[in-house]
Amino acid sequence: MKPFTYSRAASVEEAAQAAASTQGARFIAGGTNLLDLMKLQIETPTHLIDVNHIGLDRIEGTQEGGLRIGALVRNSDLAADKRVRRDYAVLSRALLAGASGQLRNKATTAGNLLQRTRCPYFYDTRMPCNKRKPGSGCSAMKGINRGLAIIGTSEACIAQHPSDMAVAMRLLDAQVETMAADGARRSIPIADFHKLPGDTPHVEHALKPGELITAVTLPRPVGGTHVYRKVRDRSSYAFALVSVAAILGKDGGGRFAFGGIAPRPWRVEAADAAAPAGPSAVAEAALAGARPTAQNAFKQGLTARTLASIFRQEARA
Amino acid sequence: MKFDTPATANPIDRGRVVGIAHDRIEGAAKVTGTAPYAYERHDAAPNAAYGWIVGSAIGKGRIAAMDLRAAEAAPGVLGIVTHQNAGPLGKGDMNTAHLLGGPAIEHYDQAVALVIADTLENARDAARLLRIDYAPEQGRFDLAAERDKAAVPRAGFGGSADTSAGDFDSAFAQAAVKIDQSYTTPDQSHAMMEPHATIAAWNGDRLTLWTSNQMVAWGVSDMAKTLKIPKEKIRLVTPYVGGGFGGKLFLRADALLAALGARAVGRPVKVALARPQIPNNTTHRSATIQRIRIGADKDGVIDAIAHEVWSGDLPGGSPETAAQQTRLLYRGDHRRTAHRLATLDLPEANAMRAPGEAVGMLALEVAMDELAEACGVDPVELRIRNDVQYDPEAGPQRPFSSRKFVECLRQGAARFGWDKRQPEPGRRREGRWLLGMGMAAAFRNNLVVASGARVGVDAKGHVTVETDMTDIGTGSYTIIGQTAAEMLGVPLEAVTVRLGDSRFPVSSGSGGQFGGNSSTAGVYAACVALRAKLAEKAGFPADEVTFDDGLLRMGNQSQALGALAGPDGLWAEDKIEFGDLTKRYAQATFGAHFCEVAVDMDTAEVRIRRMGGAFAAGRILNPKSARSQVIGAMTMGAGAALMEELHVDTRFGFFVNHDMAEYLVPVHADIPDQDVLFVEELDDKSSPMKAKGVGELGICGAGAAVANAIYNATGIRLRDYPLTIDKLIAQAEGSALA
């Protein structure tokens, strides 16, 4: 861990000002990902701004009939919230499929959106990694990549996004509300929030330096049957090989988002449109253009199978 | 005490303390944080500086140049140890690679430097500033690719590399039913909870190590050899060990570098491996390739059996003796086992819980399931038909010391409800789940190792036992206390047990499931000696006295132990030494594993619903801790079946998934229900305790029962562990999967 300085912000404004005035500063909330990365010197911030005491820890209704989730709402609290369980059950289920109880008690809504890949080469600083050290090369592409992404990848990077929560947020068309260092506020559709790797796999999201997530808002509930199925190598406390978030309507329609297979929560409009045609059609549409490796090609079939399981469970097939 | 004739009646048979389920006597200290582990010994070594190990970034080659200047100038740095300044070092007998590498690099993450600083963070930061230029060389990192060059290894713990009896080739060729299959198991990591850790302090030329180690005497002698100092100058203290599974059998880099670091900076130094360093810096269980051939008659009675094993290790290393059980488990006049060892430049392969059988049984017991199906015989019945009451390689002149294998099969099957199994695969369904049952034998050799102890009684009649035996979470403290209490007729509360200090008599240590039986037999021997001294003091003949209620009795006379001991107390020391009973009798532990799984018909997710087993391992000294050992081992077996695998990057020669996020071991949710039955047995040829090992038996065969249950659920026979989703769905066609 490189030496760093630390300050505790008392308000959103103070946090933004601290970020604006310190080069190399990072916000820290739950610290469940950042601290590990700092110990390994994968992340080396010079200054940490603790945002745990700036409020932003409430879940409130919006005028549009949706929900505004404060950036610092803990994963455990969000999963247990009555309104979330009633109207956005897929979000609650996705959260509970992730990490462990202890981690969910610490991890925050905003922090979860920003968690970094589990590519093993990203974690070994002696290995080349374009995400960790731009231009150094990708060790994973011809190495051990069974768990990595099959779609949305580039020649530079095949790392997967590890979040469960973000997959549900993507399914629910969430908006990410931010405040920039200069105080300017904006709202970013979640579809635009996470970036595909392209030539710049180290750029993972749309935030500008010093820009702080203040809330994530959900639109009005859409009803339907909410499902989150996470398929992994053990029953609990493991990252997804494939996960599927789905909302199924009584009319045969549905919408789908996928985790474990792409550098960002994966959603394709054509896949939603294919819902009436069944799980194979949904999978085919969702994975069009996939470029798997020999080791992770099984994720294509597994995605289709996970969808089939969901359809079977909901007695639609 | 020499143990070379079968045990007769002795005070242990009273069973007042031994054989009763006791909580572990150090349990309260452990759960309240008052049992300090090695890295926490601030009390013993205040002012310790922090060492951080720097591991090699290449798998094979040389260090071309090291530039320490930036690291030396970093804040808080007190010193840096490398091969250039460590002074002349020898090498211990037990480790294969050098614990401090350079200029030659033998494996990835081999320690090449220790950076010592005033804080952990400063040491870790400065470690990043070391500039090391490597000259990499092409290494051999792929077992399958090196298989054909594998050689016959020298004989080791598992006996000779090859064995045979009869004429296997002819008998197999003529067999009515033939099984000929290959199986693979991957490299595995011990993944114990407490990382390797040591605090080292020098006082003049005397070295003290507070460390985490299973084998005190090996640690001392290998440290002496490595540092080239007399072993009398070294004290090694390891009273609490947070798990080992074989990963802490030997002197490792944490201990050596702490000692070198403390010498370099003139103050105590503490070193712990970070979790991501453990898989590549320390030892692991080698991957194996195994071929099994079984020739049987149409009723499944085996006539010919062969088991060949390929594994890999560094030059000078040792093989994974995965054919061991095949020498003893089933009948058959014509037999062959063979081990071949390939030279690999991966990190050091060495012992991990039940070396040999743990992965050998993964193959053999699936092959037996295949034979059962080929013959149309129930898998339990098949094993009963192939039971043999003597060493089938040596013949009837070498019987088993005790072998309740058939009893385990029958009692285990009845308790599990095996009769509800549907023999035809893929026939049971519950919603989206395919259900299946599988079983496997359990088998692990019973090893015995000389073990010493001293036992004292003070004026108040309180008993103290001292031995360098370790408790690696197994319950050694408690069974040793129970043994002394039984022998001296005092309650367990009147016994203090001190372990894990090289100042105490040399014990068997903890490994190979020999520790429990051997170390308590050593305590038994010391107690016999103390009983004789007490009887002599009382003026009674030693063979006519009994010990009850803190009293030495003869007839209707009695004297309190405390009064006999007097103000100075009375001590006796002895050790148990084992004669040729292990040669005259085959000695092993037996059992039967049963498992029920559910497999999602779409996603192929495997969920173990329950595991159960029956086990015969001689006298069960403490049913509570023995059950914990078996449950833990069954869990490890389930991990081997379903998820455990170190992924080898054959380009760079290292294990890629080197942390607990990526090297998966089972969690509670993976196995909701486990049941253990101990079949009553006393083994008078194993030790005066009439006990055998039990700490490793539970892993041997457990994973095969899972594999066989998956086959029964799905009709998919996988032979390459671990049995993951990707492998199952690749075989979906023609199976019960959708």
From TrEMBL, chain A:
User: What InterPro entries does the record tag this protein with?
Assistant: CO_DH_flav_C, CO_DH_flav_C_dom_sf, Diverse_Substr_Oxidored, FAD-bd_PCMH, FAD-bd_PCMH-like_sf, FAD-bd_PCMH_sub1, FAD-bd_PCMH_sub2, Mopterin_DH_FAD-bd
Q: Does the keyword Flavoprotein apply?
A: yes
Q: Which UniProt keywords apply?
A: FAD, Flavoprotein
**Which Pfam family, giving just one, matches this sequence?**
FAD_binding_5
User: Which organism is the protein's source?
Assistant: Sphingobium quisquiliarum P25
Domain FAD-binding PCMH-type positions = 1-223
Q: What are this entry's molecular-function GO terms?
A: FAD binding; oxidoreductase activity
Protein name in UniProt: Xanthine dehydrogenase
The organism sits in which domain of life?
Answer: Bacteria
UniProtKB/TrEMBL annotation, chain B:
Q: Which Pfam families does this entry report, sorted A to Z?
A: Ald_Xan_dh_C, MoCoBD_1, MoCoBD_2
Give GO MF terms, alphabetically.
iron ion binding; oxidoreductase activity
List, for all copies, the residue spans of the domain called Aldehyde oxidase/xanthine dehydrogenase a/b hammerhead. 32-138
The highest taxon in the source lineage is Bacteria
Q: Which SUPFAM superfamilies match?
A: CO dehydrogenase molybdoprotein N-domain-like, Molybdenum cofactor-binding domain
UniProt xrefs under PANTHER family: ALDEHYDE OXIDOREDUCTASE MOLYBDENUM-BINDING SUBUNIT PAOC (PTHR11908:SF123), XANTHINE DEHYDROGENASE (PTHR11908)
Q: Which NCBIfam families match?
A: peri_hyde_PaoC (NF041671)
The name on file for this protein is Xanthine dehydrogenase
Source organism of the structure: Sphingobium quisquiliarum P25
